[in-house]
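Much of what follows relies on a compact textual record of a protein's fold. Here is one such record, which you should read through line by line:
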Amino acid sequence: MKSLIISAFLAICSIISGRTQTKSVTILDKSDNNPLFGVNVRHNDKGYFTDLDGKFLLDMSTFPISLTISYVGYRTIIVTYPNESSVPSVSVWSGWT
């Protein structure tokens, strides 16, 4: 009985953890490789801002992922990632408006 309860608990944890897939993405300025703080990233109905290190956690539960990335003084870009392996952990961005 005890092993059945443990197995059920592990199965539930596995299902729950499978739903919350995220990846840390860092946005850097291409000209000097410095992280960009406060970049606005839109994904469907969700919005993200990069932290002091230029990082944000991206929800990767559905694909393709289309991101609209905007930052004061930079041009707005739209990038699309068709699958999980195509999402970079570091995204280099340049281009003043």
About this structure: Residues 21-93 form a domain with the Immunoglobulin-like fold (CATH 2.60.40.1120). The beta strands are 22-29, 40-43, 46-49, 55-59, 65-70, 77-81, 90-93.
